[in-house]
Design a protein that fits this description.
Layout (H helix, E strand, L loop, with lengths): L1 E4 L22 E7 L2 E5 L5 E5 L3 E5 L7 E5 L4 E5 L8 H6 L3 H22 L9
Antiparallel strand pairs: 1-2, 1-5, 2-3, 2-7, 3-4, 6-7
Length: 128
């Protein structure tokens, strides 16, 4: 999935969150979907969660191997690569775990290559 920030992205959210590491006008690849959020790689090369309401979907393609997990209780869902569907995957990524960082990089590079023509001259930024 390819998304673009809306002009109101940098306005404070009701919970006070802001998203200074996202650039208006840049395109972003979704690496996981959650009920109300997208996970994308920000301008600093880190996977972060952002509110879906602040982005427009430009291309809704998702790889065939992505999995979906749901919780009936609160209508919550998560969708993403099976490699990321391991409890604590992103916590270990942010802790600097080499295995998670390499798995993430492999998946992200595959997604980047799918969208390369649409991304044009944008540089891939990914913290390793």
């Amino acid at each position: 999935m390819l998304i673009k920030p809306r002009p109101d992205l940098h306005e404070s959210m009701p919970d006070g969150r802001t998203h200074p590491s996202i650039s208006i006008g840049r395109l972003y690849i979704v690496v996981t979907l959650l009920t109300d959020e997208f996970r994308l790689v920000n301008d600093e090369g880190e996977p972060i969660l952002v509110p879906r309401s602040r982005f427009d979907v430009l291309d809704d393609w998702l790889p065939n191997d992505w999995v979906r997990e749901e919780a009936e209780v609160d209508a919550w869902y998560w969708c993403g690569p099976p490699q990321f569907a391991v409890q604590g995957f992103f916590e270990r990524w942010h802790d600097g775990n080499n295995h998670e960082r390499q798995v993430f990089a492999d998946v992200y590079e595959r997604l980047w290559h799918h969208y390369e023509a649409q991304l044009g001259a944008q540089e891939m930024v990914l913290k390793r």
